[in-house]
Amino acid sequence: MSAAALPIQPTSTPPIQPNSTSPTPQQVDEARTAFTASLLSAGTSTVQSDLQARAGDLHANAAAIDRQEQELLKETMNLGKESDKWQKLVDDGARGVKETGDVQNWAEMLQRDLCVLEDTMAMAEERAQGDNTALANGRHR
After folding, report:
1. In the prediction, which pLDDT does 76 show?
2. Cα dist. 134→122, 126, 139 in Å?
3. How far is the C-alpha of 131 from the C-alpha of 125, rounded, in Å?
4. Burial of 124 (0-12, 13-18, 19+ CB in 10 A)
5. What is the CA 88 to chain-centroid distance, rounded?
6. Which pLDDT score, from 0 to 100, does residue 44 have?
7. For the chain, what is the HEC assignment?
8. Are the beta carbons of 35 and 11 closer than 8 angstroms?
9. Distance (Å, whole) CA 6 – CA 8
10. What is the average pLDDT across 7-19?
11. Amino acid 113: pLDDT
12. CA angle in degrees (0–180, nearest 5) for 107-113-114
């Protein structure tokens, strides 16, 4: 049965009669107390149910936030692991490029040394031919 359908219970004080004189201070106090109590009762149940619903929502939302926080922490850890894998791959690639650069530098140095050796051999051959020609002509250097 809803609160609106409940019958109003008579109070212990007799109802005020229209023909009677003004109400006594005790009757006014009792009426005021009864009226205030009925207002508080009606207002409290509505406010209390609203507050309880909000508190329930807050608790449910807090639980959802906790789950999301745990999931975020887990995914952050996974992202860190993935980042470490990528960093290792980049480091390996950089090392490979450096080694390739080192090999290229070594090859260029070897080529320069071979060119110097080739030039030296050519100069030695020219000198040897010049000496042979001078000997053939009877001249010595």
Report:
1. 97
2. 18, 12, 5
3. 10
4. exposed
5. 23
6. 64
7. CCHHHCCCCCCCCCCCCCCCCCCCHHHHHHHHHHHHHHHHHHHHHHHHHHHHHHHHHHHHHHHHHHHHHHHHHHHHHHHHHHHHHHHHHHHHHHHHHHHHHHHHHHHHHHHHHHHHHHHHHHHHHHHHHHHHHHHHHCCCC
8. no
9. 6
10. 55
11. 95
12. 85
What's the pLDDT tens digit per position in 41-98?
766 667 777 888 898 899 999 999 999 999 999 999 999 999 999 999 999 989 888 8
User: Which residues touch 131 (CB under 8 Å, ≥6 apart)?
Assistant: 141
Residues 6+ apart with CB under 8 A from 130: 141
The residue behind tokens 């692991």 is 81
Which residue type sits at 118? E
Would you mind telling me the total number of residues written for the chain in this entry? 141
Among candidate residues 26, 6, 4, 3, the one with its CA nearest the CA of residue 14: 26
At residue 106, does pLDDT exceed 80?
yes
Residue type, 53: A
